[in-house]
Design a protein that fits this description.
55% helix, single chain, 133 residues, mainly alpha, elongated, Arc Repressor Mutant, subunit A, two-stranded antiparallel ribbon
């Protein structure tokens, strides 16, 4: 299972076609961005990694920090959050999104969610049977 912790939020989808709002809505809906991130550092890191997907070269935390005018500590904090969610992977001091596009990320989240729900349902049935419910 690639995704370790994803929190799904049901929020209102943006009504007009503004790519930044749509990306923030998408990432916020899967719990990547929090309201505490006032300067949208995590969002900016995510977008930079997304833009870098086609190059497949990855970026170091120092490159991200320099490109986004953030401290390396801030970048590492948010990279750890994105890696904890399973959205980003690190290899040889470079960071990458785990898939080639956003749709694939959502497909993988759905597969993991479906598997988890099947396991939960099996366990619930076993408990119900033992409790004779």
């Amino acid at each position: 299972m690639r995704f370790r912790r994803i929190t799904i939020f049901k929020t209102t989808r943006p009504s007009h076609a503004n790519i930044n709002e749509e990306l923030q809505w998408l990432g916020g809906s899967i719990g990547l961005f929090s309201l505490r991130d006032k300067d949208k550092s995590c969002f900016r890191i995510f977008i930079t990694l997304l833009k870098n997907v086609k190059g497949k070269q990855g970026l170091t935390s120092d490159q991200l920090a320099a490109n986004l005018s953030l401290t390396r500590g801030t970048v590492v904090f948010h990279l750890n959050k994105l890696m904890g969610a399973g959205i980003v992977t690190g290899e040889k001091n470079k960071y990458y999104l785990i898939t080639e596009n956003l749709e694939m990320i959502i497909d993988e989240i759905k597969e993991n969610l479906d598997k988890t729900l099947r396991e939960l349902k099996e366990m619930a049935k076993e408990i119900d049977d033992r409790l004779e419910l």
